[in-house]
Amino acid sequence: RAATDALPAIVDSRAAAIELLDETSLRVARLDPDSAMVLPAMDIDHHAGLLVEYQEMTAELLTGRVEGAHELFGGFPLATPYELSGQPKTRADLWHMRKGLYATVAGNRPSGTTALLEDVAVPVPALAATCGSLLELFERHRYEESVIFGHAKDGNIHFLLNERFDDPACLERYTEFTDDMVDLVLGAGGTLKAEHGTGRIMAPFVRRQYGDELYEVMGEVKDLLDPTGVLNPGVIISADDTIHISHLKTTPTVEAEVDRCVECGYCEPVCPSKDLTLTPRQRIVVRREMARAREDGQVELLRELTEQYEYDGIDTCAADGMCATSCPVLIDTGSLVKRLREQQPKPLRSRLWLTAARHWPSANAMLGRALTAAAKAPAGLVAGSSSAARRVLGAEAIPQWDAGLPRGGQRRMAFPVADAVAVFLPSCVGTMFGPEGSSPGASAAFLALCERAGVQVTIPEGVDGTCCGTPWKSKGMSDGYRVMRDRMSIWLWESTEGGRLPVVCDASSCTEGLRELVDSLGDERGARIEVIDVVEFVAEVVLPRLPEPDRIPSLVIHPTCSSTRLGIDTALMSVARAAAAQVVIPERWGCCAFAGDRGMLHPELTASATAAEAEWLRAHSFDAYASCNRTCEIGMTRATGQPYRHVLEVLAQAVDGATQEAEASR
Q1: pTM of the model
Q2: What are the strands of the beta sheet with 147-151, ordered from one edge?
Q3: Where does the pLDDT of residue 664 fall: very low under 50, low under 70, confident under 90, or very high at 90 and above?
């Protein structure tokens, strides 16, 4: 009530937005680590919060508006000191907290319940009493952890509750609550819908809100436009007084990721398979339909969904985790897909990958030699052979070779250094896939930069048998992954001298895989071993010690899904700006979906994922193209026809150019 009582004065101060958060909203917001950083530290007990924003066309006008706000807020009964911030990040974090409330609350609901978000508006003077009465309704009808939040400036509030619609008693409770809520809102002179559309839930109450005469006019207009009743039947205009409790969507318990999803769709724009098969939201929806079909005994439907899901849901998921970067409740559908792959029967492939894990030095070198041999053979012969093998053994077992793939790389060799500041772990991807054209490759570029900067790094013995384990984990090959994890844990502990030295890796996906591997150890090794991506290490340690590079005019950067999740894109841009005068990330950038070998197993996935970015790049011209992961570079080279290299190769070239120019001038 204190918060809503303050609204008239804040509205008069010409605030652009005033958002109300009740006690439960504040508690829920604290569950998000990002939100906790901007919320005041306090014990929340019958508190409410107001998020107020001021906007003006000029800085001078805004300064005057803020000065008036300071005078106003000082007279409010505040539990903690107020703060007005002009920092973009603080503003973004506060709005992230507010806009993510629905998904955060719904994502933490009990498994098997459905989250309902309603949207009503009342005159601002009636808002306080309405909110208080709504809280009483929650208590009377035993709706715990329900929240109230919304656009208080306009008297528009949202409230959320969780219900179990497969239980008749719960359905009756929901019916009674809805009747009481309608009485409350209409009694306050309000509307049952404000910014959200009137759907089936409020259809039985439209006549009551607008009266018989207006409702009859609405019905006549509906009949004129839709005489056969095919346009959204039952929505807004309905003769069925029980339509709001008919055909309700239940939410069966499936998996942890599926159960938390509220189908908000925030994940869909960043999903690389969105234009080919399914998005993360759709993968989850189909999992729910499969569970529902299983419960209802719909054998034929379950069989059909299961068969189609293998390609649409599992095979064409890049499992890149980009969905988690946009999900308000941090659902990583890729992790779910990896578990589903693990459950698939594949005894022959499992044995092959287990054997490869046990003999990784030889297996990795053999794969590299095979690519080198393929690059020298007639392209049509190799491509035809791989296509024939795929038809016999399946697309998930045999990669599709094409002329765009590079030759194999060089086997990794130990290079021990006594006074090193870090352990360098060249990725095994560099052994499998050689560098672009005559470029030296990421490992050689990194070592050259370190030498030029006087930074000592060591490559310990046994490096050729190392791998982060990502190929096994992403394919669901759990036995092979355990073999590699056990070997890597010993090598990492010994090589880093018990965690004294950090480990630097030259492929962002491998850096992420190493961090996951180290975290999974759960012991002293996991706590003490530090894994750093080579881009971050160069930006922080090497770059300040390098001479001024001879920067190229322009450079395109393709961030990777792993660099985004690792939070190193800022470092990536720092390195890129040291190498080029103009650095551009394409406007339509997205995950390339090459995903290790996923782009070779299903080339159509990478083609679809990169189509928009490639189209943008074809309309522009740049001097160089770079990324920070070898397989992503291959995928982008294939998609655009431009030679993508590791950003360190571009930087090393720029440093060499500056050195040669300086020597020539002397």
Answers
A1: 0.83
A2: 49-53, 17-21, 147-151, 156-163, 114-121
A3: low
